[in-house]
């Protein structure tokens, strides 16, 4: 252990939300107060939807109060039932959403490089009850969208992407929200673009957007007709106003994060036992998280050791994603949750560590974090 590196005098977390310009935000808040319209698809909501269609380069988009409700509504809008093939290497919401729709999650192992669902293993998990594939663009890295499309077409399955990490990710210049039947974005405060709480569904057809807009507003079609069992998924005017004020800062935030990613990459480049994030060719990554993998044997210390020891230095990393969803008590009895079905995911969830990653993190701090970690080897 090197003894000369001092702990940070303030806690350093994995992320820090982008702050709005208070003056701009106040202007919008005043407009909301003047209108007395705090929710129900007001001016801010309409404008943010329009801006995000442009930013994300998607044909249609529907805002929600959070990403989880959006994903629940997505399953409802496609009338999914039976089973859905999904990944265990994700945030709890992905699997819980299936449970809330009375759909049985079928866990498929992940790809060792991208850490996304392994498209080559999906086919073997299909049964007569399968209606959908629910995949996640983990850490903003796109799934194998063409292979997933092929399988879905061959078996008549719907495809939903949890794109919660993938705001602004692109494949060969095409927005990530254009793949699958529906893509869900989360605007939680920990996400790159945020509205404190919030989310959206990007959808292929106008018709499907209309159905989703009904679902998120209790199924109310007009004064005299309620046409389906909807839910309250509406984004409020306050959230939409925050989003409108934050949206212009995303480009700059991504540029800063790019510099930090390059710094981490060069500082860790030759460290045995530390694997850097995978960057595919032709892909623009959202830069939502910076996740390294620590191979205990090669590095000499485990991920858990590094995670714990960093706390002494006031650095709070996250084990994204550990535990696997398939190991939660509510899902572990499912046949597909068996660790022998999920070898790659089991291994990777013990290795991943999400490091501090946000625009305001200085390059000096990045260097200090790297030195602390490297110092743990001896
Ligand atoms: C954040 C997140 C969600 C949930 O989004 P909320 O807006 O917090 O409800 C779902 N899936 C993944 C992978 C996430 O990271």
Count of extended strands: 15
Task: Output the helix-strand order.
Answer: HHEHEHEHEHEEEEEHEEHHEEEHHHEH
CATH topology label of the largest domain: Aspartate Aminotransferase, domain 2
Percent range for helical residues?
25-40%
Structural class: alpha/beta
Under the CATH scheme, the architecture of the largest domain is 3-Layer(aba) Sandwich
CATH homologous superfamily caption of the largest domain: Type I PLP-dependent aspartate aminotransferase-like (Major domain)
Query: What is the distance, rounded to the nearest whole angstrom, between the alpha carbons of the first and last residues?
Result: 5 Å
Shape: globular
Total helices: the number is 13
The average pLDDT score comes to 97
Oligomer: single chain
Strand coverage percent: 15-25%
Low-confidence stretches: none
Give the C-alpha Rg. Answer: 21 Å
Bound molecules: pyridoxal-5'-phosphate
- The main sheet orders its strands as 1-9-8-5-4-2-3
Largest sheet: 7 strands, mixed
- Overall structural domain count: 2
List keywords for this structure.
378 residues; Aspartate Aminotransferase, domain 2; Aspartate Aminotransferase, domain 1; 2 domains; 15 strands; globular; binds pyridoxal-5'-phosphate
Topology diagram in text:
Blueprint: H1 22-35, H2 43-56, E1 60-64, H3 67-77, E2 83-86, H4 92-100, E3 104-107, H5 119-122, E4 130-136, H6 145-155, E5 158-162, E6 170-171, E7 174-175, E8 182-186, E9 199-203, H7 206-215, E10 220-222, E11 225-226, H8 237-246, H9 250-268, E12 274-275, E13 283-284, E14 290-294, H10 296-299, H11 303-312, H12 343-349, E15 352-355, H13 363-375
Parallel strand pairs: 2-3, 2-4, 4-5, 5-8
Antiparallel strand pairs: 1-9, 6-7, 6-13, 8-9, 10-11, 12-14, 14-15
This protein binds pyridoxal-5'-phosphate.
